[in-house]
Amino acid sequence: MAVAALRLLGPAARRAAGGPPCRAHRLTPADDELYQRTRLTVLEPESPNTMFIEGYSSRGFTISGDLVVGPCAVLPRTILQWNVGSYRDISHESLSLFRLLEPQIEILVLGTGDRVERLHPAMLKHMRESGIAVEVQDTPNACATFNFLTSEKRVAAAGLIPPRGTYTRV
């Protein structure tokens, strides 16, 4: 009878009573675990307003149904005109916009027009030191990469220069 009563008690009570040790797994929380609950606060629910690049032409881009003329900066929830004429105009100053964003972006995708152009290594190093990975691609691939990253719920931005080719849907 005493052994049956010890079985009904928990392992701590059995050890205190001098009973045999138990090797069973405990499936219910112990008393101290009941007071260590985790709280989760949703700061912002998922927004359907994420940017999606639908197409591009030599004049600009179609982004989430809006026509944007010329080079643009596509941010997680905003589109801005980007004051660069070609990849040669990409500088520390023109990239400062992407470093100032809150929350900070993880990845910056740069579309340099018809071809992948080489940017100065010091600029790319400065962005990496700021905690932002930079992917330099031709604009058609940069559009596809940006769409993929945002569909994966990554915090990404794009700096896009229109290619000289014709209109294409992404």
Structural class: alpha+beta
Q: Low-confidence stretches at least 5 residues in length (pLDDT < 50)? A: 38-45
Helix content: 25-40%
Overall mean pLDDT stands at 81
Strand order of the largest sheet: 5-4-8-6-7
| General shape | globular
Q: Can you count the helices?
A: 5
Largest sheet: 5 strands, mixed
Gyration radius, in Å: 28 Å
Strand content: 15-25%
N- and C-termini, Cα separation: 76 Å
Number of strands: 9
Question: Helix and strand succession?
Answer: HHEEEEEHEHEHEE
Overview of the structural elements:
It is a single chain. The protein is an alpha+beta fold and 170 residues long. 25% of the residues lie in helices and 22% in strands. It contains five helices and nine strands. It has helices spanning 2-8, 11-16, 92-99, 121-129, 139-151, and strands at 53-56, 60-63, 66-69, 72-75, 78-81, 107-111, 133-137, 156-160, 168-169. It has a five-stranded mixed sheet with strand order 5-4-8-6-7, with helices on both faces. The chain has a four-stranded antiparallel sheet with strand order 3-2-1-9, with helices on one face. The radius of gyration is 28 Å and the shape is globular. The model is unreliable at 38-45 (pLDDT under 50).
